[in-house]
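To whoever is on call:

I kicked off a structure prediction for a single chain this morning and the downstream step that reads the tokens threw a length-mismatch warning. I double-checked the sequence; it's 168 residues and nothing unusual in it as far as I can see. Pasting both halves so you can look.
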Amino acid sequence: MIEIQGRAHNRAQTRAVIRWVTIGMFSVGGLLLVIGLVLAGVSVSYLNDAERTPGTVVALDWEHGHSGGSRRSRADDEAAAYPVIEFTSKDGVRRKFRDSTGTNPPSYEVGERVEVLYRADSPEDARIKGFASLWLPPLIVGGIGFFFAVVGTVFALVSRRLPGSAAH
């Protein structure tokens, strides 16, 4: 009798853990999906409000993938090239900025012409009009959120199939 009660208790604990993991996965997934949508909205807003002007890649700023001195430098750390772009804003001032997306191999070459987006009220916040600059952050965050939501769904389906569950 004690053994049967022990098994029933273990099943109940397992169902409770799976339920909390499911709730956690759905919560994190939903939050990240919302953040991804907000970031996509920010990109759309930026595209609608931005001034457009030609720019030129004047340098590639090579940087390793880690920042700070807390991590040991490893031989297999690959550097990424961040393009430095020069453009003239609508007010006639020549400006320079470093794009926030670095790649290896480099996505741009020195001397390459690119389209620059910037807001007239803050030309220092300029971006290259390109997929990575505008859409990569929302896709990464939203994709991770989608993954968590799918894992939460799998946990929910598994918990429904456990012996002794209400839906079984």
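Update from on-call: the warning came from a stale cache, not from the record. Cleared it. Sanity check on the structure: Confidence is low (pLDDT under 50) at residues 67-75.
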